[in-house]
Amino acid sequence: MVRQLLGEPDLLRSNPHLRAAPQTRLYSMDRVVAAEQSEEFRAASAVAARRSAAARAAALRRRREVLARIAAEPIEVPRLPPDRLAALAVEHHNRRDEERASWRRGRTAQPAAVAGAEPGALDRWKVDYLSHRLTRPAEILDELYGRTGRAAAEELLRRRVHAAIARTYPDLAAECERRLRAKGKFGCGRGPGLG
């Protein structure tokens, strides 16, 4: 609208923030005020407002569609015997610890064992393992990359996964609740990383 209503600038100055950037266009206040009082400005503003409202409505519709898809996605947490879940959780923890050690200079993996793990740590590892095992939700989030509503979809999915884990394993409900209060983000790598 500036170019349409004001045309060429009254003055060009060097960009004060970055010398290599295009020059800053400056306009006389009298010209700006006159342009803002014109019928052409009112018409252009009305068109811009309609476009903006239509874009907001479309974004809201896409967000609702994304959330409906996440809400409808079945989340099935595998039921495992306690010993088996603990062993798989420690194995998963050790594998991820090795991966992290390989990414960071000076860090060495410190393998854990079920017998030596603190109860709180073991619960965290169990929830990590279970949430990472649910790969279908992660695939859905991958499909939503860059789309409107992805952040809300992540949060909804995170809540649903932790609720499903807590229903399947009531002894992990406190850890799931702690994670929901912490409002962590999905992790990187394979699986939703709902930790």
TrEMBL record:
- The protein here is known as Uncharacterized protein
State the species of origin: Streptomyces curacoi
Q: Please spell out the taxonomic lineage of the organism that makes this protein.
A: Bacteria, Bacillati, Actinomycetota, Actinomycetes, Kitasatosporales
